[in-house]
Specification:
By secondary structure, this protein is α+β, with helices and mostly antiparallel strands. It contains seven helices and 16 strands. The protein has three domains: 139 residues, Pseudouridine synthase; 31 residues, no CATH class; 64 residues, Archaeosine Trna-guanine Transglycosylase, Chain: A, domain 4 (Roll), CATH 2.30.130.
């Protein structure tokens, strides 16, 4: 039901996860009206149907409600999700039979374009740009409720994660085949790997000279380069990673050290 861009980080590049996952995401979503499921998507079991006689949402109504949801909104995430409560993912607790009440969180719906509306079965397609932590499944529920019906997510495709798009991505089947020894697929996977020298495509990056790189690798701050962003990936003059750094009071300080022996991500 859900497909699209998934960024995989290898070796030392896993230290960039928190920074890359903070970026916006773009989706193509399909919503079905008439019933809500326990997972808020079509993989779940129907728990409530729309009231008898509920009108099928019109394009005008959908565009009106969507436009009113733009910006920062308070959103209750699905109970079947990876959000942790007391150190354990909610979906694990729910599937164990526990009652979990998720807390509302502020998220942002930055763009929402209605691309199609269907009457039989009732549903719609929407292009979205959202902030970190946004659940499209919750949007499907909330949009339907605002229209006087019930709904769930029937299909989802992530078309962008930060700077990464479907262009240059490869099918997950290729990764499986490569893991099983398929030489052609191994070449496909290697071609998709992005090296540190291309890091500026997806994260603010700054370069330092050899002496500064040495100081930073020992955890000592150095004078911040003029082009350094508040938080940035620091590379040495050869393009090898040094650290994730932060500029504080004119000094570049180490947030997370990176070993240069694993140069690809």
């Amino acid at each position: 039901m859900a497909t699209g861009v998934l960024v995989l980080l290898l070796g030392e590049a896993t230290k960039l996860s928190a920074h890359l996952s903070a970026d916006d995401k773009a989706y193509e979503a399909e919503l079905a009206f008439g019933a809500e499921t326990d997972t808020l998507d079509s993989d779940g079991e129907i728990v409530v149907r729309a009231p008898a006689g509920s009108a099928t949402p019109t394009r005008e109504d959908l565009e009106r409600v969507l436009s009113g949801m733009l910006g920062t909104i308070s959103q209750i995430p699905p109970v079947v999700s990876a959000i942790k409560v007391d150190g354990e993912a909610m979906h694990v607790r729910v599937r164990r039979g526990e009652v979990v009440v998720p807390e509302a969180r502020d998220v942002e719906l930055r763009e929402a374009v209605l691309t199609a509306v269907t009457e039989a079965p009732a549903g719609c397609s929407v292009s979205l740009v959202v902030s970190k932590g946004f659940y499209v499944r919750s949007l499907a529920r909330d949009l339907a409720l605002a229209l006087g019906t019930r709904g769930h997510l029937s299909a989802l495709r992530r078309t962008r994660s930060g700077a990464f798009t479907l262009v240059g991505a490869f099918d997950g089947a290729s990764l499986i085949a490569a893991g099983r020894g398929d030489l052609e697929m191994k070449a496909v996977v290697r071609e998709a790997v992005v090296g540190w020298s291309e890091a500026a495509r997806w994260m603010p990056t700054t370069y330092v000279d050899a002496q500064s790189a040495r100081e930073l690798r020992f955890g000592r701050p150095v004078a911040a380069p003029a082009d350094a962003a508040a938080t940035c990936l620091v590379l040495d003059s050869t393009g090898s990673p040094v650290c994730v750094g932060a500029v504080i009071d004119g000094l570049l300080r180490v947030l997370r050290g990176i070993c240069p022996s694993t140069p690809s991500c």
